[in-house]
Amino acid sequence: MVSLAIINCGSGNLRSVQKSFQKLGAIAEICDKPEKIKTADAIILPGVGAFSQAMQSLAKNNLI
């Protein structure tokens, strides 16, 4: 089973993204910890429309 890290950048409906991938059989976890993201098979950075705000959040959480 594939392990997915859905990066929590502080906006967007991440729970819907998570449920969609779980329905497809993946282990999908919303996370904001670099150590969790590094162990995932794949990383999802959901589109948010306000990319500069998302980048600020990623930088704040040391995820860049």
What proportion strand?
15-25%
Q: How far is the N terminus from the C terminus? A: 26 Å
- What would the average pLDDT be, to the nearest integer? 87
> Regarding quaternary structure, how should these chains be classified?
single chain
**Helix-and-strand structural type:** alpha/beta
N-to-C series of helices and strands: EHEHEH
Low-confidence stretches: none
Measured as a percent range, the helix fraction is: 25-40%
Helical run tally: 3
CA radius of gyration is: 11 Å
Biggest sheet, spatial arrangement of strands:
2-1-3
Task: Say how many strands there are.
Answer: 3
Strand count, sense and closure of the main sheet?
3 strands, parallel
The outline comes out as: flat
Describe the protein's architecture and organization.
This protein is an alpha/beta fold and 64 residues long. Helices cover 39% and strands 20% of the residues. The chain has helices spanning 14-23, 34-38, 51-60, and strands at residues 3-7, 27-31, 42-44. It has a 3-stranded parallel β-sheet with strand order 2-1-3. Helix 1 links the parallel strand 1 (3-7) and strand 2. The mean pLDDT is 87.
SSE arrangement:
Blueprint: E1 3-7, H1 14-23, E2 27-31, H2 34-38, E3 42-44, H3 51-60
Parallel strand pairs: 1-2, 1-3
